[in-house]
Each structure stands twice: as structure tokens, then as C-alpha cells.
Amino acid sequence: MRDHGGDPDRARQIYGEGDWLDLSTGINPVPYPVPTLPLHAWSDLPTSTDMAGLLYAARQAYQSKAAIVALAGAQAAIQLVPRLMATGHARVLGPTYNEHLAALVAHGWTVEQVSDPEDLAGADLATIVNPNNPDGRCYPPESLNALADQVGLLVVDESFADPEPAFSLAPSLGPENGNIVVLRSFGKFFGLAGIRLGFALAGREMAERIAQLAGPWAVSGPAIALGRMALADMDWQDRTRERLVADAARMDRAAHTAGWRQVGGTTLFRTYAAPDASRAQEHLAHAHIWTRIFPYSRHWIRLGHPGTEQGWDRLEAALTRECE
User: Fold this and answer.
1) pLDDT tens profile 223-266
2) Ranges for all domains in the chain classified under CATH 3.90.1150.10
3) What is the CATH T-level fold of the domain 39-232, as seen in this structure?
4) How far apart are alpha carbons 176 and 115 in whole angstroms?
């Protein structure tokens, strides 16, 4: 099923209008402060100089020597991955973000979801989300580099890696790398999902193939200008990582009061096991708090963070009532 979070319209249709607190995504609720952008970012087509500045900022932020392609979000990269080589047998480590499997199937790949990383070996194309969504499993770069020797193409989706850069494969990639593609999201960590910006990091030849498939002007002028500023702002990134650690700990304490068991997650979102996830989601929905549950588990429920103290108060009060 291609089901996602970030669907508050569905919550309104079922539970009515109101002041909804949408916790169904893993997007940072305290976004990077958007400055006034130069007029040319809106009025002119992006130039090669503009793009070069963005890619330099991304290369510095991700500490990588790989070739980088800017795209309209990590989702755009996921849609291009099935076209990078002739169709064959793909394996996806799951359960995980379902667009990887869906995009491969839509392009004619034979796809198998496996639960053990060792079972990815031998695939023509193997996909790992690291850290994984929704359970937060992480795999060290050395194990991923070893896996790359056992598959045709290794795709590593690092959409939630910004808070935990030690697990990123990006610093070990160079321009001569042949069979690894790393995907990065801008919108999740920087809290600006609407700007639609992401990156693919790969060897030079693979990056050129991705860029050709993406076509000209794959990223808007405002996304280039804002991305360049935010990626270079290391102080904001460090402060945000510290805040997210504190927020994750606060979320865990609140979930504990509801009797939920922690499954995992990242500092951008937390996943818990509840006795009945559907009932727990419904309970919170009656308080106009929207969360994420999964078709493959009757227990798992995932929550992003509130962005304000008022939002935290609403959530903590609702979770306290959940345990009553």
C-alpha cells in the first residue's frame, strides 16, 4: 500500500474540522527561519552558478566528495532509481518507507522485501533506509560498504540521517564510486518539506545519469537559494540536533505514561507499540491530534514532535488520558 503520513485532510474528513495537531510525519516542526529571498530566485530560471553554490553547500554539509545532483525532494530521486539500470531482481529491507518498493514495481522490477540485511546480497538492486522509517534501525557505513560488493546497485535512503550524521555513508563516497547511490532529504530536518528539495550522491557517471533523467531545472530558484543558506548554517543545525534529542526524550516519557513500549525511531519521530494502534490513533484523533499507524502492524504507532509548548501540553494531556 502506498499510504503515508501528512494527511490531515483525511483526519478532518473522519473526525471533523478543528485545531488539528498533525504528528503524522517526521518533519521538524520548528523549521529553519525563512529569510527574504532575492527577487531573481523567483523571477529567473536557475543558473549554473546558482546550482553550483547549492551543491557546494550540500557537499560541505554532508562531508562528501561524491558527485551530487539536486532534485525536487528525496521522493523525486526514489522515482528515478528504477530507471538507473535494466530491470531485474530488487530487494528492499523492510518494513520501511513503501515508496521504494512501489516505484520499483511500477517500473517492472521483480521486488522482494526482506527483513535481514544479509538477505539483500545477490540482488541486482538493493535498497536500505538508514536510519529506517519507521523503526529507526541504523547500519554503520562499514557494513553498507561491504554490502555494496555483494549487489549490483546499492541505494541508501538517508532521509532521516541529518540528526545522526555518524551513520551516513556520504563521507565515504567519492567521484569514482560505481554502484552506490545515497539519497538525502532537505525538507525533513530543516522543517521545510514544502520547498521540495533533496539530493542524490553517487559516483560521477551515475550522477550524470541521474541528472539526465531529472532534466533541466529540476529544482526551483527559491529552493536553491534557501537550501544554500540553510545547509551552510552549521550553528542552526547543531542547535536543532540538540533540541531534537531533548524532544525525543520528552516524547518517550509521555508515551510511557500511556503504557506504550518504544519500538524505535529517530530524534525526528518516535515509534511505539500500543496494545491496539488503531484504538490509540482514534483516541488521540478525538483530541484533534493526528498520528501514523501501519497496515502491517496492529500495534505500531508513530508520532512526530509538536512544535510548540501548547502542542506538547495537548499531547501529554491526551496520552495521560490514554492510560486511564
Assistant:
1) 999 999 999 999 999 999 999 999 999 999 999 999 999 999 99
2) 8-30+235-322
3) Aspartate Aminotransferase; domain 2 (3.40.640)
4) 30
